[in-house]
Every structure is written in C-alpha cells, then in structure tokens.
Amino acid sequence: MLKPFLFLSVFCCLFSLSVFSQIEKPKGDNMNKLDENGKKHGMWVSTFPAKKSEKPFTEFGNYEHGLKYGTWYKITREGELISIENFKNDLLDGEAKYYDEGKLYCEGTYMSKNSSQEKDTIVITHPETLLESYKEIPAYYGSFRQGEWRYYDSENGKLMKIEEYAEDELIYKRNFPNFINDSVAFKKREALLPHNVNKKTTLHKSKKQQYSYY
C-alpha cells in the first residue's frame, strides 16, 4: 500500500522528471477514497481540463470528510509548480505561493473565517463606565489576504512590489524601481490569483460596519 508520505516523495521526483502526465494513479492504494457518508477523505489527486484562463492542471492534497485541509499542490501536465496553498475547513488559510512556469512570482498569507451562523456576538465595553454589553453582528465566511504579500519578477527573482493587508484591505503598498505597473504579463498572472479569480473566496459580508455604544 502506497503511504501518503511516499506518494509525496514520488511527486517530488515527478517535478524534476516532468513525466507526471504519463503516470497513471496506482490502484489499490489509499488515495481518492470516500468516507462512510460519501465525502472525499484522505489524500486525493485530481486532474482538470483547460479553462479560458487556465491550462490543464493536476492538484493533490488531503481532505477531511469533504473539506480541504493542510497543504495542497497544483502542477501543470509538464510537472511545473503552479501553486502551493494551505487550507482549513475548505478555505485558504496560511501561507500561499504562486509560480509562473515553475518560478515564484507571488507569496503571502491568507486568513479564513468560517462561521456556520448568520450572526456573531461581540462584547462592547463602554469607554466611560466600562460596563460590558453584547451586540450581534453579521457573521463572516471566506478567505482574505492578511499581512505582507510580495510580488517578484519570475524571470530574475527580483522583488517588484510589496503590499500589506488587514482583512483584505490594502493598508500599505510599495513599488520597486524595476516594477512595471502596466506590464501585460504581470497583470495576467495577478488576475489568476484566487482572490481575483473567485470573489466568493473573500468575505461576503461588509466589514465596514458602524457600531454605537449602549
């Protein structure tokens, strides 16, 4: 039986040999299994056809009862890295790295909020009396950029841009001398990042709520 750690080692070899597309998924192993409720569980390898904005790719990582968890890898048919992402409760959470023809061009961190309730309750402290009260606010669900994001020239590895985010809101940006803001290639790569491709991965509730003290 092929163990998960051995399977990942095999994939590392495939990256360098660029023959992943020629290898069939082993039979009788512990991959691509379903739990007792018919949900994906354990290590899964899935191949996807080409789309308008993406080439054919294969991704692999672990599910826990239908939800993505831990580190997930996405590669081209030729075995070149497209992305390394981390998930929690099927949402992007943690470090993420994105590649262009196998070369790093963007890295940053996502944070996720996965509330199963429509409302959250927060504690509000009155600034003068210090009395505490409770208030219901809309619950949030999704992934958002948090902290520093770095963009590189994938050809030479030079740092081109730094952006700082707080719950997906840009609070700081610095462009370096070699950064070309209107670069067609750069914009094309940036448009393929998850927070730009699929807006559903970001918070679907407005964060700009105004609250008054009781």
List the helices and strands and how they pair.
Blueprint: H1 4-17, E1 33-34, E2 40-48, E3 57-64, E4 67-76, E5 81-88, E6 91-92, E7 94-100, E8 103-114, E9 119-125, E10 132-138, E11 141-145, E12 147-152, E13 159-166, E14 169-175, H2 184-191, H3 194-197
Antiparallel strand pairs: 1-2, 2-3, 3-4, 4-5, 5-6, 5-7, 7-8, 8-11, 8-12, 9-10, 12-13, 13-14
Describe this structure in words.
12% of the residues lie in helices and 46% in strands. By secondary structure, it is mainly β. The protein has one domain (4-201). Strands 1, 2, 3, 4, 5, 6, 7, 8, 11, 12, 13 and 14 form a 12-stranded antiparallel sheet that branches. The chain has a two-stranded antiparallel sheet with strand order 9-10. β3 (57-64) and β4 (67-76) form a beta hairpin. It is flat and about 65 Å long.
